[in-house]
Design goal:
Elements: H1 5-23, H2 29-43, H3 50-66, H4 71-90
Helix pairs in contact: 1-2, 1-3, 3-4
Length: 92
């Protein structure tokens, strides 16, 4: 799935925050690697597919539910999440 530059930047910021949280736990090595790879793909604005798309969507949904966000940011993230879910299901 391809995003706009502003969407990539927003998603990269969120995954960066999630990555910092997961890096604190040594037992999450595989999760940290997945998040690091995802962060790198977002930084390079690559197309996000498969397990990366699923993980991105899951992390975005958790981030929205666990954090106080401005209404416009929350709405944008909810729309992106729905878009990712539709794209993920259409590829099955």
């Amino acid at each position: 799935m391809k995003f706009t530059s502003s969407e990539y930047n927003l998603l990269k910021t969120i995954i960066g925050k999630v990555l910092k949280q997961h890096s604190a736990f040594a037992d999450n090595e595989s999760k940290v690697k997945l998040l690091t790879d995802l962060y790198d793909r977002l930084t390079l604005e690559k197309i996000i597919t498969g397990v990366y798309l699923h993980e991105l969507n899951m992390q975005i949904r958790m981030f929205v539910s666990q954090n106080e966000l401005a209404d416009d940011v929350k709405t944008k993230l909810e729309h992106l999440s729905a878009k990712m879910k539709r794209k993920s299901h259409s590829l099955r």
